[in-house]
Amino acid sequence: MDTNTALVVIIGVLVLLAVLRGPKRPRYIPKKSRELAKAKFVQEFYSDPKNKGKRLPWKKLEYDHYVPFSDGGTHEPENIRLIPRKENRSKGAENPQSQDRMRTIVIVAIVLFILYLLSKP
């Protein structure tokens, strides 16, 4: 393998790693957002007549994003809610970003292949 080819391969690997990694965002939900989601849940729970006299199922609840975090959803109070753990774990996040990322990887791979062909004498 000559120097140009090795350089193209190294650059390609670095670009692919950068694309695969993506931006890193903290997953911690701020206290303000959690408290507002909790207050909204309590209000909705007790406004439902069928829950009259019932205790809140705190141990069975999890915070959830209306717009999934993996799809670019934020930790803003409007995007956070409390839902039953079972529902949260079963729904998962449908991630269209992963399709965009794969498309980007394919484009980068094609460009690298073309550069490789052009670098050959």
Written description of the protein model:
With 121 residues, the chain is mostly helical. It has one domain. Helix content is 55%, strand content 8%. The protein has 4 helices and 2 strands. A two-stranded antiparallel ribbon has the order 1-2. α1 packs antiparallel against α4 (96-119). It is rod-shaped.
Question: What topology does this entry show?
Answer:
Elements: H1 3-21, H2 31-47, E1 61-65, E2 80-84, H3 85-91, H4 96-119
Antiparallel strand pairs: 1-2
Q: Count every helix, treating DSSP H or I runs of 4 or more residues as helices.
A: 4
Sketch the major β-sheet. Answer: 2 strands, antiparallel
Amino-to-carboxy terminus distance? 12 Å
Share of residues in helices: 55-70%
Keywords, please?
mainly alpha, single chain
In short:
This protein has four helices and two strands; from the N terminus they run H-H-E-E-H-H. The protein is mainly alpha-helical and 121 residues long. It has one domain.
